[in-house]
Amino acid sequence: MHISGESYGGVYVPTLAARVLTDKSINLRGILIGNSIDSWPLNSLSLIYFGYYHGLIGYQFWANLTSSCCNSCVGVRCDFYAGKSKPACADLLSRAERITDGLNIYNLYQPCYGGVPKSRQQRSLLNNLMFDHLEDSTMDVTSWTMLMSQDDTQRDSSQQRQTQQESPSPQQVARTYLLRRSRQDRLASIGEDPPCTNSTAITTYLNLPAARYALHVKDVGPYTICSNLDYTVEYNDMTPVYQKLLKSGRLRITLYNGDVDMACNFLQTEWFLQNLNQTVTTPRKPWYFDDPVNGRQIGGFVRQWAGNLTYLTVRGSGHMVPRTSRSRPTCCSRIT
């Protein structure tokens, strides 16, 4: 048996595999995950690099960002969020999260279905990531309060006096500042289609009685592509789960990424796997496919580590690789 998934499957596929491994009656042989979310912090950090090197962030903004958030450090990978305690850095980060506005977040080079939307929901997707970095902040509360005042000049003076009297923690002030900038965006996005997509066909199909009967779906309400389910995130980073899977020695683990996806970008997964510190068995190299018109083509790049761990990119593909690169979905089965 194999377990596969994509996107948030980066959380539920490994955790399900870890659970299945405890049942020796099930012959689980491997997992396959496309464009997975492996680490929320790495995903938001790597998107900034993705944006700069794909021309979405200009040089001056990049220079300001590195100067304010990482002391102009450009020779090594900069953790921009390490400087989030400084209001100037946090303000630049809140602007950086808007780099996908008006673009198809699931495929940089594909059109935005229905035209460029109001940026409300796309910002909300990335705002969610930024909040994850505020829990361990230490900052000057007065500076944060001044930044909040600049951002929201209509604040009620009684609320300001209450804030000063109660001496909120730095984390509370930072979160309040960012929540004020995005609360309307986040609330408006609940239950909506992801930006630049059209889910009409799949929604109609999965709500057909015949389709639900064939799929053994119980009467649990209508299908929607995004729901308003409220839950608590338990896994901020999947490293402990992967370490458990690798330690078992029983599984073939394959992760792949369309390399122009911005929702769960390829750098995030590459950095995540590198941080597992497994021994490289096959250095990064191109893999190929046969195009019926143009002959042999480079389909992307592949790298392998000890523990039957494989990672490959699919060149020019977005978040839904089998959908956007239909001539190449067999790459994963051939290579692994």
Automatic annotation (TrEMBL):
InterPro entries: AB_hydrolase_fold, Peptidase_S10, Ser_caboxypep_ser_AS. Residues 156-172 have a biased composition (Low complexity). It comes from the Eukaryota. Keywords: Carboxypeptidase, Hydrolase, Protease. One of its GO terms (molecular function) is serine-type carboxypeptidase activity. GO terms for biological process: proteolysis. Belongs to the peptidase S10 family. This is Carboxypeptidase.
